């Protein structure tokens, strides 16, 4: 009996697009993976994660939905490709700078790109970041940190700490800025003041809100970097 071709089935079981074999398009040669990624990012920036569907993506590209499957298998594949593409927008810092400044510049640039594409925050724990841009940026970060006297274990912990601070900072900012930030802050301050017996310290400082997100990020980032480098 002829041997059954199970390549498509096996490919569908691979959890990340970066480990799947690249398909050879059988039709519509003008439709490329790059065009699909560009269209997907446009939709994600305009409508968020819920706005991206295979049908909507096909409409954006003026093709039938089945044409997309010559390049991708699932919506998750598209999200992985889009995420790695925007990671490629993060400019490398100048490695000739002092370690602290190189790290600060690199993380500020990461934050800029994440805030530009706020949908990306929800995807950072979605799949392993092993796309070419993600790995190149991980390599760049490691190249800065190996200039310190830290052990490799400490460097890896350092990377986790920086990543968690970056993501947490952006998530916090986006959550406050979903609506009218000042109005939300005023409502929260009023609530805390009315419940001063329960939250005495918060109530005492309710009027001292520091909402300069850029300055807060840099202050926290530089504090973390100094502490970790000097450990």
From TrEMBL:
Sorted UniProt keywords: DNA-binding, Repressor, Transcription, Transcription regulation
Any one Gene Ontology molecular-function term assigned to this protein's record: DNA binding
Residue ranges for the DNA-binding region feature of this UniProt entry: 53-72
Entry superkingdom: Bacteria
Domain (HTH tetR-type): residue spans on this chain: 30-90
Example of a GO biological process term: negative regulation of DNA-templated transcription
Protein name: HTH tetR-type domain-containing protein
Pfam families: TetR_C_1 (PF02909), TetR_N (PF00440)
Protein's organism: Acinetobacter rudis CIP 110305
Record SUPFAM superfamilies: Homeodomain-like, Tetracyclin repressor-like, C-terminal domain
Chain's role: TetR is the repressor of the tetracycline resistance element; its N-terminal region forms a helix-turn-helix structure and binds DNA. Binding of tetracycline to TetR reduces the repressor affinity for the tetracycline resistance gene (tetA) promoter operator sites.
